[in-house]
Design a protein that fits this description.
Blueprint: E1 6-9, E2 14-18, H1 29-35, E3 40-44, H2 60-73, E4 79-84, H3 86-97, E5 102-108, H4 120-128, H5 137-144, H6 151-158, E6 161-164, E7 167-170, H7 174-179, H8 181-185, E8 198-203, H9 214-220, E9 224-229, H10 236-239, H11 241-252
Helix pairs in contact: 1-11, 2-3
């Protein structure tokens, strides 16, 4: 059984952090840093991301089982879960499929619904990068800029490139993520609800959680509440770190 790459820090009750699409466990470092003062924080690289193994399948059933396998490996009976974006969907699936493993659930800026494909340009851009022609990230950035105009988004995506034996390589498996993209966009249907305490944190300027998602959220997570961080977009934990961490700590306490 392949095991996800993970880091563990701090001591106390367990919290598991799960990053979003094209991210890695480093994305939630600012959250982990604060939480480790009072909790044992386990951060994972989702399959096909960071330093984790590569598989050409990414159903939420598999992604959730990957997390449960890490828990079993570390003898964690039960943990609080915090996931951002795709990581939020993985955390939700863990709560719905393995409720006995989940204490409290925090979902950052995502709903348990199907989303229309909206990363096509990013995927095309990443696939178009020819690393044999790039001497450094700046060269790769130039290639990616043909597809992705926002500098911040490009900087985030280019963190997936690292140097091995003086050559640039992708850490994430762009090909497999592209193949599995439909699986990542699905919503959750025909699943039992999770009765544990759940918190949805929404970026005020983000359109990932909408009023029309409320019915689905309440049906699956009847014991849930929501917080909105004003002036934050989808990357709310990076844009408003102090506020985000405050909300998380208050909810977990």
């Amino acid at each position: 059984m392949a095991l996800l790459n993970y880091t563990q820090q701090g001591s106390g009750p367990h919290v598991i952090l799960i990053h979003g699409l094209f991210g890695s466990l480093e994305n939630l470092n600012m959250v982990a840093k604060k939480l480790r003062e009072n909790y044992t924080v386990t951060s994972v690289d989702v399959r096909n991301h960071g330093s984790s193994f590569h598989e050409n399948s990414m159903s939420y059933k598999e992604l959730a089982k990957d997390i449960i396998n890490v828990m079993e490996h570390l003898s964690i009976e039960k943990a609080n879960f915090l996931g951002h974006s795709m990581g939020g969907k993985i955390a939700m699936y863990c709560a719905l499929a393995f409720p006995e493993k989940v204490e409290k659930l925090i979902v950052a800026d995502i709903a348990p619904v199907e989303y229309p494909p909206h990363h096509n340009q990013i995927i095309e851009g990443l696939k178009s990068i020819d690393l044999t022609l790039a001497k450094n990230r700046k060269d790769a950035d130039l290639q990616l800029s043909e597809y992705v105009k926002e500098i911040g988004v490009r900087q985030f995506l280019l963190r997936n490139i690292s140097t091995v034996d003086d050559k640039l390589v992708f850490k994430c498996n762009v090909e497999f993520i592209s193949n599995c993209y439909k699986q990542i966009m699905v919503g959750f249907t025909n699943m039992p609800s999770f009765s544990g305490e759940t918190l949805f944190i929404k970026g005020g300027q983000s359109d990932y959680i909408l009023a029309e998602h409320r019915e689905k959220i309440v049906a699956l997570f009847p014991n849930s509440k929501a917080k909105v961080i004003q002036d934050a977009g989808h990357w709310l934990h990076a844009e408003k770190t102090v506020m985000f961490n405050k909300i998380v700590e208050k909810f977990l306490a």
